[in-house]
Design a protein that fits this description.
The structure is a homodimer of 293-residue chains. In chain A, helix 3 runs antiparallel to helix 4, helix 3 runs antiparallel to helix 15 and helix 4 runs antiparallel to helix 6. The first copy, chain A, is 71% helix and 1% strand. Chain A has a two-stranded antiparallel sheet. The first copy, chain A, is globular and about 45 Å long. The two termini of chain A are 22 Å apart. By secondary structure, chain A is an all-alpha fold. Chain A has one domain: Farnesyl Diphosphate Synthase, CATH 1.10.600.10. The interface between A and B is large, with 52 and 52 residues.
Chain lengths: 293, 293
């Protein structure tokens, strides 16, 4: 199976799991469940849950065992997008090619739909089976830490605080580590934990995740500058408009591309201890480097 | 020890646990951690975590074992207040006698401080020790379910949707069950679970919690009508102003008081199987019935 077909098959698995784990749209109060599903099933690329599944595979685990972890990280990702898009944050009207949650359901329901997806993430993760090395408590700690005040949410606060003033390269890296790399790395670690990875295996994929996470955000920044709104499914050029610090703004386009390439190579190197089992993870890194949306 | 001294000693224990579990105020990004602590240490009555500890005691457990559960429910309660007070929800300026979180830190940070407290709740709960009957996964499921889209958050959505139109008694009961009773009952159940309660014990405190939760909200509604803003530490009379349905509005003051009394008696009856160990829980129910703020 080529990588694009592989990714499509993972997306289908994740979509079915999310549909199964989440309350039906008609569950009372229906407005809320409809709003949660509107953003969750908006055609997201499912990169984070697919990384969970690919890492489980690379560590000798099964897809079935990793589905609660995969569904949970996608709920966290989607909630963070709903809240980031709010008028009091990035104030965006378009996400995944459709009006943002608050544009359709109003701000109050959008805040609550985000809250509910965040809460549902932990309810889903609690359905996972622990393994000899990693209890459910360890899984919850991993996800809560990466998506909590020190990382995912902390990065959004730093991003808010940095708006409209020039940021240093260090500040920019800090925001990206928090907002993007932390949840990508946690996705990868949760996949490894679902497979009861050895300490050596967990270290390898953690290194992989850290390089990949940073490369991912650089490419996001580049696409924001070079692609159209239609291609991205979200407002293009908004980082520039908001005078947000981005890699292209600080390093220029060429050096940013070179940096993304260097980090992707480093990600490959990190996977060496896992051998052939990590083939899909390697393809994943190359795919993310080459993506155009 | 009389009940007020008992409650004060529990509050002190919970405050110390929260301070220990939560990142320090200077942890990066400091704005966020300061905002989280502003609302968490705003002089809340700590009723929910105190119920966790009193129930643990009633079921033969220890306070120490129940502290992560107690801290977690207080984080959930505080996050829900921060989000409910936002301009896009109840739009309130005053909470626990101080300006609301968004009034001090802005709406963006307030949304994120709420998100971070919600996430921290699960990180804290994952620090709990499971017991033979109740794993950490069971604890996380309990808290996520009660504070999720079907209950706590669902109730807030129903509350938003009901604003400005007359609600039936049934609708009102539904909102209260979701917004208040569910988290109170979960607090009580988590306390029992920390003590490895027998199935019979868990059923008894669950019945207790359901009656108590409804009584609690009726008394809240009564206080909103009869007390001043200064006494409550939050804007008084706002339910009436918002033409929100309340028990006094639907049943009248006297019948509402009688209903709260009847539910408190029923809560007492539910505790019979626990015998003398539940003495503090009985005092708790009486205290909540008689409170004037």
């Amino acid at each position: 199976m080529d990588f694009k077909s592989y990714l499509a098959s993972r997306t289908a698995l994740v979509d079915r799991a999310l549909d199964r784990f989440l309350p039906k749209a008609k569950t009372k109060p229906s407005t809320l469940h409809v709003a949660m599903r509107y953003s969750l099933f908006a055609g997201g690329k499912r990169l984070r849950p697919a990384l969970v599944l690919a890492t489980a595979e690379a560590c000798g685990g099964t897809t079935d065992a990793a589905l609660p972890h995969a569904a949970a990280v996608e709920c966290i990702h989607t909630y963070s997008l709903i809240h980031d898009d709010l008028p009091c944050m990035d104030d965006d009207d378009l996400r995944r090619g459709r009006p943002t949650n608050h544009k359709v359901y109003g701000e109050g329901v959008a805040v609550l739909a985000g809250d509910a997806l965040l809460t549902a993430a932990f309810e889903m993760l609690a359905q996972a089976q622990g393994t000899p090395r990693y209890s459910v408590a360890a899984l919850v700690t991993e996800l809560a830490h990466a998506s909590g005040s020190r990382w995912l949410i902390g990065g959004q606060v730093a991003d808010l605080e940095g708006e409209g003033r020039p940021l240093s390269g260090e500040e920019l890296k800090y925001i990206h580590r928090c907002k993007t790399a932390a949840l990508l790395t946690a996705s990868i670690r949760l996949g490894a934990m679902s497979a009861d990875a050895t300490p050596k295996g967990l270290t390898a994929v953690t290194d992989f995740g850290q390089s990949l996470g940073l490369a991912f955000q650089i490419i996001d920044d580049i696409l924001d500058v070079t692609q159209t709104t239609e291609m991205l499914g979200k407002t293009a050029g908004k980082d520039v408009k908001a005078t947000k610090a981005t890699y292209p703004a600080i390093l220029g386009l060429e050096k940013s591309r070179a940096e993304a390439y260097r980090l992707t190579k480093r990600a490959h190197t990190a996977l060496k201890p896992l051998g052939n089992k990590a083939a899909r993870l390697r393809e994943f890194a190359d795919y993310l480097l080459a993506r155009d949306y």
